[in-house]
Amino acid sequence: METVFLVCAITGGTLVVCLLVAGLFGFGSEHDIDHDADTDADDAGHGNALFGMLSVRALTSSLLFFGLGGMTARYYGADELAAFGAALGSGAGVLYLVAAALRAMKRLRSDGTVRVERAVGTTGTVYLRVPGERTGCGKVHLALQNRTVEYQAVTAGGELPTGRPVKVVAVVSADTVEVEPA
């Protein structure tokens, strides 16, 4: 039984190191098995929890700790059945922990896209003068979604000189906003 635990620990450890090295070089992030098995059955959510935990990282970590848990139990004098139980427990525990960590990291993703429609009501500064009565476009700098962005700007009022504080009153297009003096 010690040989089985040793082989599992070596195989799992080697694969974990390979995944770590591959991740450092930008490989492997797309290769996790991510099962979102959607079904129309009445019990659709009951069996998917196990498959939702399966990924290459979680399985290799589980294999490593299965072997380490069994070897540790045998080292401290546990019989084979108790060592196998310890190995299963440590492997299942690590499978759950790694899957939970990966799931939590997946929720941290953000596309980082600035949404121009969120600009209405924000204030900014004229960067290039904005001609009056919508006769042309100028440029404004706005603080939007924790970053400074630059948009073309028009105004229905009089000309707005460079450096003038403005307020966005409407979105004209994907790259143009309508402003008024703040």
Describe the model.
The chain has 182 residues and is α+β, with helices and mostly antiparallel strands. 42% of the residues lie in helices and 20% in strands. The protein is built from four helices and five strands, in the order ααααβββββ. The protein has helices at 2-24, 48-53, 56-75, 80-106; strands at 123-128, 138-144, 147-154, 165-173, 176-181. It has a five-stranded mixed beta barrel. Strand 4 (165-173) and strand 5 form a beta hairpin. The longest helix is centred in the middle third of the chain and has 27 residues, at 80-106. It is rod-shaped. The termini are far apart. 26% of the residues are buried.
Short description:
With 182 residues, the chain is of the alpha+beta class. It has helices at residues 2-24, 48-53, 56-75, 80-106, and strands spanning 123-128, 138-144, 147-154, 165-173, 176-181. The model is unreliable at 31-47 (pLDDT under 50).
